[in-house]
């Protein structure tokens, strides 16, 4: 019973983050923030799992490092899109 309560909050927050990512498709910045929230919830669930199974937290630190790199790449894409197109709307881009 305690395990259900222990995992219910991060699971609900992860589902809300996925819903936020799917519903916000107008601006790139809001999509990047939703992705970072998803990564943060995944990190929280991974950290809880590693602590429950008495594993070392080395993999958590690797995951955190890669998520920081992912955030930096997302921000660099945002800056380059704003410099080339003037905004971060997805409707202003053409496929061609």
TrEMBL record:
<dbReference type="InterPro" id="IPR001133">
    <property type="entry name" value="NADH_UbQ_OxRdtase_chain4L/K"/>
</dbReference>
<keyword id="KW-0812">Transmembrane</keyword>
<keyword id="KW-1133">Transmembrane helix</keyword>
<keyword id="KW-0496">Mitochondrion</keyword>
<keyword id="KW-0520">NAD</keyword>
<comment type="function">
    <text>Core subunit of the mitochondrial membrane respiratory chain NADH dehydrogenase (Complex I) which catalyzes electron transfer from NADH through the respiratory chain, using ubiquinone as an electron acceptor.</text>
</comment>
<dbReference type="GO" id="GO:0005743">
    <property type="term" value="C:mitochondrial inner membrane"/>
</dbReference>
<keyword id="KW-1278">Translocase</keyword>
<keyword id="KW-0679">Respiratory chain</keyword>
<comment type="similarity">
    <text>Belongs to the complex I subunit 4L family.</text>
</comment>
<dbReference type="InterPro" id="IPR039428">
    <property type="entry name" value="NUOK/Mnh_C1-like"/>
</dbReference>
<feature type="transmembrane region" description="Helical">
    <location>
        <begin position="6"/>
        <end position="22"/>
    </location>
</feature>
<keyword id="KW-0249">Electron transport</keyword>
<feature type="transmembrane region" description="Helical">
    <location>
        <begin position="29"/>
        <end position="49"/>
    </location>
</feature>
<dbReference type="Pfam" id="PF00420">
    <property type="entry name" value="Oxidored_q2"/>
</dbReference>
<dbReference type="GO" id="GO:0030964">
    <property type="term" value="C:NADH dehydrogenase complex"/>
</dbReference>
<dbReference type="GO" id="GO:0008137">
    <property type="term" value="F:NADH dehydrogenase (ubiquinone) activity"/>
</dbReference>
<comment type="function">
    <text>Core subunit of the mitochondrial membrane respiratory chain NADH dehydrogenase (Complex I) that is believed to belong to the minimal assembly required for catalysis. Complex I functions in the transfer of electrons from NADH to the respiratory chain. The immediate electron acceptor for the enzyme is believed to be ubiquinone.</text>
</comment>
<keyword id="KW-0830">Ubiquinone</keyword>
<protein>
    <recommendedName>
        <fullName>NADH-ubiquinone oxidoreductase chain 4L</fullName>
        <ecNumber>7.1.1.2</ecNumber>
    </recommendedName>
</protein>
<feature type="transmembrane region" description="Helical">
    <location>
        <begin position="61"/>
        <end position="82"/>
    </location>
</feature>
<dbReference type="GO" id="GO:0042773">
    <property type="term" value="P:ATP synthesis coupled electron transport"/>
</dbReference>
<keyword id="KW-0999">Mitochondrion inner membrane</keyword>
<dbReference type="GO" id="GO:0016651">
    <property type="term" value="F:oxidoreductase activity, acting on NAD(P)H"/>
</dbReference>
<keyword id="KW-0813">Transport</keyword>
<keyword id="KW-0472">Membrane</keyword>
């Amino acid at each position: 019973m305690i395990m259900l309560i222990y995992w219910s909050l991060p699971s609900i927050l992860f589902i809300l983050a996925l819903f936020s990512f799917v519903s916000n498709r107008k601006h790139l910045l809001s999509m990047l923030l939703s992705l970072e929230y998803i990564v943060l919830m995944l990190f929280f669930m991974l950290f809880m799992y590693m602590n429950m199974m008495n594993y070392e937290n080395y993999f958590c630190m690797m995951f955190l490092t890669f998520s920081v790199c992912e955030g930096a790449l997302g921000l660099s894409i945002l800056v380059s899109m704003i410099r080339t197109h003037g905004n971060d709307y997805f409707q202003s881009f053409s496929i061609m």
